[in-house]
Amino acid sequence: MQNNQWLDHSTVYAQHHSTFYRWVLYPVIGVLVLGSLFLFLGKTEVVIRTKARITSLETKKLQTPINAKIKVNHLAENKEVKKGELLLSFDTTGIEIEKQQLEQQNTSLQEQQQAIHTFIDSLNQEKNLFAAEDSYGYANRVNVYLAAKEEIQESNQQLRTNQQQQQDAFNKTNTQLTDQLTKRQAEQSQWQQVRSAWAGQQALAGFPSDITSKYQTWQAQLAASPDEQKEELKATILSTIDTQLSQLKNEIEQLQLEQGKLAAPPSAEHEINGQATKNTQSKEQAISEAKQKLSEITETIAHNNSSLQSLNEQLKNSQLLAPSDGVLHLNEESKNISELPKGSLVAELYPNQPKDSMAFTAQIPANQMSHVKIGMPVHFKLDKKGVTEKRIDGTLTRIAETSDLTKDGAFYQVEGQLPIEDQAVTRYGLTGDLSLVVGKKSYWQKIKDILLNQE
């Protein structure tokens, strides 16, 4: 008991308390103070993370220049090529055959054009200007037209001859009837005068001899007849004169009836003019159709010339040559395909590997673009499974003016430069994680934002 009394002494308790502060409490307080200083004074970067790809901003797309089967293919992944080096050669047999066919068609169309021009000139001048028969029948059509015209002319001449003969016959008959009618009317007038003279027993003078002779005979008979018979004889002779007048009247009426029925022959000019008009219309229609055909041929030749120009351009582009020195990166979708449509992307030509820096491209969501600025620092880490990652620091150099709308939303394309510090980086097409440094904040603020769900 006496040996343990020293443990109850106050000095021992003081020594225990001092040891606790020195080895436990003070270090804990120090750690807390240093931790607080680190939380409030220490800074961490605020970044926007996305995927990026090493690329070239001067990439040239190599596309098939024509629609043709590939005959020679010198494309290979990561192949270094020189400017003017043959990359692809195309089989142009089909194009050459098509060109030959179009040229032959154009030659035939041009010959037909010339034949149509000669045909139109022949119709306008109404004579055959063809030196020989053509392959399109235009010379024969001119001959048919000229023969038809000659036949119409002969027909018109015959119509005029017939019409003239009919007119002559009409004129002759009409003249005869007119003469007879005039003669009978003159006789009627004379006999009317004879009747008046006989009725008044007047002398008759200035009449034809036959009438004068009859009149004198009647006068002699009257003078020789007894007085009691004179009146009867006068009446008998007067009746004879009336009979003559009645006969003349009937003859005049008959002649007038015949002359009234007599009709002049119709003029042949109407039929002649109709045939001439029909012939002119036929010629004008033939010329119009020829001009329409000429227009169609001209249009076809122009279309063929346009096609020939395109074919010549295709023949000129029957080889795809490297536009500059660089490295090939093949399009996976076009590999091992022997025939591609014109304009199909077969490869991309990257410039030779730069020595100082390389470019990268990335897509940033539109809702994160408010803090992204040109010139801001970036960190790039290559995708390397199982290998220690190396961070490359670079700079953002370009932001697209407008966003691209995709099924995942709106994105802006950004570009930047990375210094070349490791040859492993100097390969186009490599991908990695890109961090865009938009600012810094204390660790305390970061923890606070996490707790308050403000990140």
TrEMBL record:
Pfam families (alphabetical): BSH_LcnD, HB_LcnD, LcnD_C
Upper lineage is: Bacteria, Bacillati, Bacillota, Bacilli, Lactobacillales
NCBIfam families xref list: bacteriocin_acc
Q: Which UniProt keywords apply?
A: Membrane, Transmembrane, Transmembrane helix, Transport
Region: Disordered; residue ranges are 263-289
Annotated membrane topology? Single-pass membrane protein
Q: Which segments cross the bilayer? A: 20-41
Where is the LcnD-like C-terminal domain positioned along the sequence?
A: 355-441
Where would I find the LcnD-like long helical bundle domain in this sequence?
98-312
Family membership: Belongs to the membrane fusion protein (MFP) (TC 8.A.1) family.
| All residue ranges annotated as the LcnD-like barrel-sandwich hybrid domain in the record | 59-351
Kindly list the GO CC terms recorded for this protein: membrane
Q: Would the keyword Transmembrane helix turn up in this protein's UniProt record?
A: yes
Would I find Electron transport among this entry's keywords? no
Q: Where in the cell is it found?
A: Membrane
Q: What is this protein called?
A: Bacteriocin secretion accessory protein
Q: Tell me the superkingdom of the source.
A: Bacteria
Q: Where is the composition biased (Polar residues)?
A: 274-285
